[in-house]
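Recap from last week: sequence in, structure out.
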Amino acid sequence: MDEPRRIHIIGVPMDLGQQRRGVDMGPSVIRYAGLRQALEALGYQVNDLGDVPVPLPEHVPPESARARHLGSIARACQALYDRAAALDLRNARIIFLGGDHSLSVGSVAAVAAEEGDLGVLWIDAHGDFNTPETTPSGNVHGMALAALMGLGAPELVNVGRPGAKLRPDHAVLLGVRDLDPPEKVALRAHGVRAFTMRDVDERGMAAVAREALACLAGCRRIHVSLDMDVLDPAEAPGVGTPVAGGLTYREAHLLMEILHDSGKARSLDIVEVNPVLDERNRTAQLAVALAESLFGKVIL
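Predicted structure tokens:
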């Protein structure tokens, strides 16, 4: 008899990584939008492990203007790592519900094998490649990808185990359109491949998605880190840091369908859903639909 298909879900109700409140409610509204039911309809056994405890910003000091709430964020990411790393993921998939994008320091560390066979597709309007030394805002959610490559604050770099969790050639950015000047320099210096919205506009999503997969051809597994602000605000209004000119509904679905077809997508972050800014939970409903496409829903 075939092993049952399983998906674990862990929520991280964190909005410490930015200054606009509301994304801490993301896990609740994504669940409310029917994530569990949608996955069960695809034939998965769903194991919802609840939420990692995260303090509210008003209950913890900002610590530093260069990296606000750094210690609290690192502790939350370590708690996420501990919970996820204890799972047997060999025959299961896992979804991490945010919360702001700083949670990916813990999620990627947990699913990254020591042998370095994990690739990460960072689907985001932003680069998240700042450090406390380069950040113009002090927002830690803009440092997550850099920290996973061993850059920046040791508190983040050493979550889970000391040092980098991700090689620059095992990460691809897709959908970027809002980079700080130091991020542009750092991304080029470290050789991180990035597909901007101009690439999508000029070449189409299918070609860009397949080229992104080709960049990760040496990786046996792919972690998809989906920041909902990669979509155009007309499609996903309820996000923490909206940027005009993003992916359309069908471009986002096509990307997820192509990733599913690769057979490598095993884990997923869904981050930056902010119901305070949303319209009738549209953004959370779209997040659920995209998760369905990634994990096997087809049109015909």
